[in-house]
C-alpha cells in the first residue's frame, strides 16, 4: 500500500457550461480524519461522486488506494450519501442482510451492537421509522463495514445537536483501526474537534489544503473562523 488513500491530480468536471471542479489536486494520507469543507454548490458532492465512480472526470486523475474508482475501490470504501438510500419496503433485518451480502467486510457484530444501542429493532419496517432514525440506520450500516476509507457526505446536515453528537461519536468509535475518514460538510464548528486535515473547496477550486494543527498555529484562529473569512459573501 502507498502512503495515500485518496488522490486528485488536476481534476476537472463540468456540467455543460458550468465548471463544477477546476483543476483540483490534493492527496489524503492514510489514517486521518479529513474534512472536505465548503458551502453549498462548491463542488463537494461532485468530487465524492467521482470518487465513487458515479461520475467521470472531464480531465485529470482521481485515485482511491492507487486505483481508478471501480469495483476494486468500492470493496474498501464505505460511502454514506447525503440522501436516504434505504429500501422502505424492507425490514431493518432485510436491509442489514442486503448490506452484509453485498459487502465482504460487513461486521455483523458491530452492526448488532449499534442497533441495540439505539433500540432499532430488526423486525421494524423501514418505512415505519422516523426520518432521524433512518439517517442513523444509514450511518450504522456504513460504519458497520471494516473499510479502509469512509466517505461521508453531509452526515450531520439537518439533524439536531444531540444527533450530531451521536453521529460523530459513532464515526470515531466504530471506524476500523488505521482507516481514513473523508467527511464532506459545511458545518465546520461541529466537526472541527475531530479533524486532522482540512481541504477548503470554493467554487470548484482548492482554497486551502493543510493539517488542522498547522492551520491553527499559523492563523491563530479556529477552523470555523477561517472558514467564515474564506467563504464570506
Helix and strand arrangement:
Layout: E1 4-15, E2 18-29, E3 33-37, H1 44-51, E4 59-64, H2 71-74, E5 77-80, H3 92-102, H4 108-118, H5 131-143, E6 149-153, H6 161-174, E7 180-185, H7 188-191, E8 197-202, E9 205-211, H8 212-219, H9 223-230
Parallel strand pairs: 3-7, 3-8, 5-6, 6-7
Antiparallel strand pairs: 1-2, 1-4, 8-9
Helix pairs in contact: 4-5, 5-6
Task: Describe the fold and architecture.
The chain has nine helices and nine strands. It is an alpha/beta fold and 233 residues long. The mean pLDDT is 91. Strand 1 and strand 2 (18-29) form a beta hairpin. The N and C termini lie far apart (42 Å).
- Radius of gyration from CA coordinates: 18 Å
Largest sheet geometry: 6 strands, mixed
Number of helices: 9
Major sheet strand order: 5-6-7-3-8-9
Task: State the end-to-end distance.
Answer: 42 Å
Using DSSP, what is the number of strands? 9
Strand content: 25-35%
What is the average per-residue confidence, as pLDDT, rounded to a whole number? 91
Q: What is the oligomeric state here?
A: single chain
Derived from helix and strand composition plus strand pairing, the structural class reads: alpha/beta
Overview in brief:
The protein is α/β, with parallel strands linked by helices.
List keywords for this structure.
globular, alpha/beta, 9 helices
